Amino acid sequence: WDMMNLIDLLAVLPLYIELIAEASGNSGGNTSALRVLRVIRLARVLRLFKTSALRVYMDVLIETLRRSRKGFGLVVALIMLAVVIFASVVYFAEEGSNPQFESIPVSMYFTITTFTTVGYGDIYPVTVLGRIVACLATRRVV
User: Fold this and answer.
1) Most confident region among 21-25, 27-31, 63-67 by mean pLDDT
2) Spatial contact of 55 and 63, defined as CB atoms under 8 Å apart
3) Is the pLDDT of residue 41 over 70?
4) What's the CA angle centered on 120, arms 116 and 126, to 5 degrees?
5) Cα dist. 67→52, 72, 80 in Å?
6) Could you tell me the pLDDT band of residue 104, with boundaries at 50, 70 and 90?
7) Cα(85)–Cα(93) distance, rounded to whole angstroms?
8) Which residues contact 109 (CB under 8 A, 6 or more apart)?
C-alpha cells in the first residue's frame, strides 16, 4: 500500500458512509459525525494552499490582479452600462406585448443571461424589435 492510496481512500470514505447511511435509513442520528468527516476532508484540501509551489502561483495571481485593478474596474463599468442600456431597450421593445418583461430589473436579468450566453429560456422576447435587440446583446454590440 502506498500512502497516497490511503489518503485517497480517506478522502472518499465519508461519501460512501453517507450513502450507506441514507440507504439504510440511519441518516438522522449520524449526521454530526458525517459533518465532522466532511470538515476534516475540507481541511485536507485547504492544506494545498500552504505548499510553496502553489504559493508562488497565488502570489503572481494576486500581484496581477493588483496591477490591473483600474482596467478591470473599467471593464466592469462598461459591462454594467451595456446591461442597463440593453435591458432598457428590450424592456421598452417588449413593454406592451410581453408580460414576462414586467420591469427593467427583470429585463436586466434577461440581458445578463444573454450576455453570458446562458440563456435559460424562461424569459424571451416575442416582438421583432425585441429579438433584434437580443441578437445584438448576444454579440454585445453597443
Assistant:
1) 63-67
2) no
3) no
4) 100
5) 23, 10, 22
6) very high
7) 12
8) 123
**For the residues of the chain, what is the DSSP string, one character each?**
--HHHHHHHHHHHHHHHHHHHHHHT-TTTSHHHHHHHHHHHHHHHHGGGGSHHHHHHHHHHHHHHHHTHHHHHHHHHHHHHHHHHHHHHHHHHHTTT-TT--SHHHHHHHHHHHHTT---SSS---SHHHHHHHHHHHTT--
C-alpha cell at 132: 433584434
Please give the grid coordinates belonging to residue 89.
Answer: 431597450
- Output the CA–CA distances (angstroms, integers) from residue 28 to 13, 21, 36, 37, in the order listed: 19, 9, 15, 16
Q: What is the residue whose three cell numbers read 428590450?
A: 90
CA distance 108 to 79: 12
Please give the single-letter amino acid code of residue 120. Y
Q: How many CB atoms lie within 10 A of CB 72?
A: 11
85: closest CA among 16, 136, 21?
A: 136
